[in-house]
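Anyone else keep sequences and structure tokens together like this?

Example one:
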Amino acid sequence: MTTRRTAVLLGAVLVGLAAWAFAPPGRSAPEADVRAEVMAADRAFYKAAAEKGLDGWMSFLADDAVRIAPLGTKAHVGTAAVRKLDAELFAGPAVKLVWEPTDGGAFADKRYGWTTGRAKMVARVDGGAEEVRWSGAYVTWWRKDAGGWRVILDTGAADPPKK
């Protein structure tokens, strides 16, 4: 083997070992990369909604997105229906939707992904204190297109009442 071929082969082996070593346990490197992309998309989705309200929220939804409200069972299909459903969530500065993804991944085609996490509705009350009005878990399904990851389904479930 020539020195150049040996160096190329050694480089390929080192890159492969690095990808294997730094991938999360139980996930291949490409799978870990897509997971990181989807988790980053969910965090960017939250940031856009926190900064721009309903318009930020809507900026991440695909045209054919489906939204099922946590306390309802009816599916709201398309951006016009979702905007109408969620307008109240972002109606005033005293109430805000807060969420954080806790897990995510992608389906085999790497074009569709999902995130799950915790969400809550927080209201500012007298004296500036905040009170949690609703908390629960959510799941968001994503589709990757030329513009990046877009929400295609979003829903959640409220925590059971405390006894």
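And example two:
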Amino acid sequence: MNAVIASTVVLAQNDDQLQLLPDAAELIWGAVAFTVLMAIMAKVVFPRLNTTLDERAARIQGQIEDAEAVRNEAEQLRRQYEEQLSGARDEAQRLIDEAREQAERIRADARAQADQEAQQILARAREEAEGERNRVVADLRSQVATLSVDLAGRIVERELDEERHRDLVDATIDELAGMGR
């Protein structure tokens, strides 16, 4: 092998430098082989390589577009979720407001009912007081009339007409009650 290398390499010595140069025929044959090899690669390998690279680029582009579509869909779902969440918050706030309004109405109704019941109790108490007053006045009239008749009977020592005397006493009491007011 050393013999082959030695035969193809011409050593040129210039002063104190050593230069390794290939043989001219080998240089030509190398250039021809390189040109043929490049032609074959340009006709066979490069088109297949370009096709493979184009396919790969198309596949990557498709994946990028798919990823972009998925990202857009996720963004749209996120917006819908936020809208639904906002709608749910609005609905919850509306329900809270309705509950407050209903509670206020119930409170107002209860207050009105309590006021009405209080008015009814006061009216009944007034009626009972008025009835009790009338009963007491009637009892007093009866007692005063009886006492008057007894007193007048003792003074006059004769029996007075009780009915006439009662009418007289009632008229007097009515006059006195009218002046007291």
